[in-house]
């Protein structure tokens, strides 16, 4: 049977307020615990999560993204982003490698995140999958220069459709589909040329967005179909975000960064507890990774 503290953490992770937790413990167990204890009991675990060594430090395939929250700072509410990195290790198991709070994205910020991961045990990264976070590509080049970078196709579609009139949304989205569904990069570039001929005059910034980001949008064409499904979207981390939003939906603001981190940590522990299955078709993917990356992978194989 879970201990009282474990139950407090589980309830907090599901979005219960400290007052609700206190009432629950009183009614069920006759235990009188102060709201302060309910708030502070998980803090040590959270700090350990942020600083602990990452034991699954073999080559990984991380995804990164962010969620924005309102946090009180110096007497005013500011919008801050919680940045998360999820890694898939050599065994095909996914896990949350860390959570960081920041007000703005920059190469300096992301360099700190990546150096933190290295210091905690991440030895190598094969491919980064990211939703076009500002400054992230530059930080990757400085910290993990051998890594490939794949920008999320779904986010690219959303970003490029910002330049499109609402009445043309469906038509333009349909015209973009042959680009990212093409079997090879050469075929994709031909489809992009075709898209430009059809829509370039009306929406030049939409085309420019694809051209400017093409190098990191087209990375997945070099990989097998099974791996492309992992790389060209950040579906894994988006699903994780949905669970975090569910746990935090009752919180309109957080009193400080530590309170936000604590809530996200507890929700994360609840989510990752259910991550017991490895990535689909991982055996096939791993075999091909061993061919693509050679000595960066094979020393870790059984």
Number of domains: 3
- Largest sheet geometry: 5 strands, mixed
- Helix-strand string: HHHHEEEHEHEHHHHHHHHH
Per CATH, the class of the largest domain reads Alpha Beta
The tally of strands reads: 5
Uncertain stretches:
none
Q: Largest beta sheet: what is the strand line-up? A: 3-2-1-4-5
What's the CATH topology name of the largest domain?
Nucleotidyltransferase, domain 5
Number of helices: 15
Mean pLDDT, as a whole number? 82
Alpha carbon gap, first and last residue:
37 Å
* CATH structural architecture of the largest domain: 2-Layer Sandwich
What structural class is derived from the secondary structure elements? Answer: alpha/beta
What proportion of the residues is helical, as a percent range? 40-55%
What's the Cα radius of gyration? 22 Å
Can you say what the CATH homologous superfamily of the largest domain is? Ribonuclease H-like superfamily/Ribonuclease H
Mind explaining what this structure looks like?
This protein is α/β, with parallel strands linked by helices and 302 residues long. It folds into 3 domains: 1-41; 54-150 and 234-302, Nucleotidyltransferase, domain 5; 153-224. Helix content is 51%, strand content 14%. The chain has 15 helices and 5 strands. It has helices spanning 4-13, 18-29, 35-40, 43-51, 107-119, 136-143, 153-160, 169-180, 185-199, 204-212, 214-217, 225-231, 235-248, 257-272, 282-293, and strands spanning 63-73, 76-88, 94-102, 127-130, 148-151. It has a 5-stranded mixed sheet with strand order 3-2-1-4-5, with helices on both faces. Helix 6 links the parallel strand 4 (127-130) and strand 5.
